[in-house]
């Protein structure tokens, strides 16, 4: 009976470790109080691998699977503001194929959605003011150098390329242009479509003129509170510099509206990416899929707290270390320090846990553990490690530490490696490098 219980420990605790690992590491703190000049890096680099994405309908779900490689040129990565290199991923997102309006709007808790080329929209950033909680930096303000390219994207330490704003390379590839209603550029986590900038001036009339749709968010007037909060004028440095002003633009608090579109002639709720803040929406009209969640908070003003957004922007220039490095400095008295836990078998700081790890170091930092609890967790981790070594062969243990990457030939079925088709459809397969 005791042996059976020991065998069960790695499975249960390993599952728990996986779940808590989905939470972001501690935010990175700064003292900057005014926006800078965003200088996007030019798109000079061809991806090292072909872009691969499938979009299918499976039962009640729309399923987007991709290798995380964009279908357009990117800026150079690594670069001085972002030390990370784009690498093949294994993205799979499920959203409702027939989404419904929820009783109330809900805040973004990580990625807002995914583009038709399989690259996620992740508009927030894990950069905060070192003072009163809740002052999250807007990544496109230029206040913090995040090494963003001309498609308003950069790379996490995991190699994950993601969009913080208007994806210029994608927009060019699907021909979003003035005078024409935008094609679908992606899907939000709640299943509603995302369009970019251009829509009908009359949402009920497909014969009405095409216009740029304008956000209803405005900069607040006057100065920030100061003191332990940042001072200076509300200039867009922080997410909280903006407020929703109903009726001041074309779109609602979720940066969307109910409208007819070329793909939905009978009408649907849709989100629009805009040239003004928030650019990528930060709130949902429907019920978001948990596939897009990676942290608490909203990333948008007025609803819940600020979201962590980009969980591991990492790198030099004052915005955090790379994956696996200690984040947040030494722990408070009574906390389990990442370096201490590493000595006892735990994984340090930020980044995903090692296989079999009970609780990642960055989660430990928030638990305010007693010395007795620290020792109990060390003992428990030692038991888990021992049981894993007894269960797995040497070869299996090696595989566990270095799982095979997702790439050509390891995809989820047919369709990869074919050339792009036309506009978005219920069952589309796309592939290819930018020209």
Automatic annotation (TrEMBL):
Keyword Transcription listed? The answer is no
YHYH domain location is 92-286
**Ranges where the record places region Disordered:** 288-360, 393-435
Composition bias, Gly residues:
296-323, 408-424
Signal peptide start-end: 1-21
Q: Which Pfam families match?
A: YHYH
Q: Which UniProt keywords apply?
A: Signal
Which InterPro entries would you find in this protein's record?
YHYH_dom
Domain of life the protein comes from: Bacteria
Name the chain's protein: YHYH domain-containing protein
Q: Which organism is it from?
A: Rubripirellula reticaptiva
């Amino acid at each position: 009976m005791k042996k059976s219980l020991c065998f069960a420990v790695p499975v249960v605790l390993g599952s728990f470790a996986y779940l808590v690992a989905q939470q972001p590491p501690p935010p990175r703190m700064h003292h900057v109080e005014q926006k800078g000049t965003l200088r996007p890096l030019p798109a000079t680099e061809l991806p090292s691998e072909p872009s691969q994405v499938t979009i299918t309908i499976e039962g009640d779900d729309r399923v987007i699977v991709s290798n995380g490689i964009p279908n357009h040129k990117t800026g150079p990565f690594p670069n001085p503001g972002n030390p990370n290199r784009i690498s093949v991923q294994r993205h799979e997102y499920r959203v409702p194929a027939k989404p419904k309006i929820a009783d109330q709007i809900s805040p973004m808790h990580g990625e807002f959605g995914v583009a038709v080329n399989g690259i996620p929209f992740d508009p927030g950033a894990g950069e905060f003011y070192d003072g009163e909680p809740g002052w999250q930096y807007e990544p496109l303000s230029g206040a913090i150098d995040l090494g963003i390219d001309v498609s308003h994207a950069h790379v996490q330490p995991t190699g994950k390329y993601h969009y913080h704003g208007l994806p210029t390379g994608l927009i060019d590839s699907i021909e979003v242009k003035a005078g024409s209603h935008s094609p679908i550029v992606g899907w939000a986590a709640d299943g509603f479509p995302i369009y970019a900038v251009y829509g009908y001036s009359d949402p009920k009339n497909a014969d009405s003129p095409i216009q740029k749709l304008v956000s209803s968010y405005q900069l607040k007037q006057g100065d920030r509170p100061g003191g332990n909060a940042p001072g200076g004028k509300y200039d867009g440095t922080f997410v909280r510099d903006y407020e929703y002003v109903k009726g001041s633009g074309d779109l609602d608090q979720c940066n969307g509206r109910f409208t007819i579109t070329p793909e939905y002639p009978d009408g649907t709720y849709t989100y629009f990416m805009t040239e003004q803040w928030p650019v990528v929406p930060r709130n949902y009209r429907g019920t978001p899929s948990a596939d897009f969640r990676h942290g608490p908070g909203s990333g948008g003003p007025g609803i819940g707290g600020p979201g962590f957004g980009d969980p591991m922007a990492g790198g030099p220039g004052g915005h955090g270390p790379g994956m696996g490095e200690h984040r947040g400095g030494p722990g408070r008295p009574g906390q389990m320090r990442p370096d201490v836990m590493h000595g006892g078998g735990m994984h340090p700081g930020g980044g995903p846990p090692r296989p079999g790890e009970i609780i990642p170091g960055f989660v430990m930092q928030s638990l305010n553990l007693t010395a007795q609890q620290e020792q109990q967790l060390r003992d428990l981790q030692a038991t888990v490690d021992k049981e894993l070594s007894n269960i797995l062969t040497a070869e299996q243990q090696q595989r566990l530490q270095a799982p095979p990457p997702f790439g050509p030939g390891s995809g989820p079925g047919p369709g990869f490696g074919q050339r792009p088709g036309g506009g978005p459809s219920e069952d589309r397969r796309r592939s290819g490098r930018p020209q």
